[in-house]
Please model this.
Amino acid sequence: MDLAQTQARIREFMSARDWNQFHSAENLAKSISIEAGELLESFQWNSEFDRESTKFELADVLTYCLLLADKLDVDPLNIVEEKLDITEQKYPVEKSRGTSKKYDQL
Model:
């Protein structure tokens, strides 16, 4: 299954349940943050984690991200590529390799 098919399946799933009424951009952004918190909870006390439950928490985050991209009418892969282009300019390899410094401190 490719990204377009996955997005279509998500749309169909939400539509069949009449959940689109709850999916404002604001609510979707909140849901991303909430689900990201649940993902982080997998690592709360140590670096050992349950792979299966962590995988499904990640799926929840990605699903809400895809729903928000759909709501904003943006292509998720294109916006990632655009952001990578910007980030490559901010973090040139010769200055940023092997360091976690922010771009304005390089």
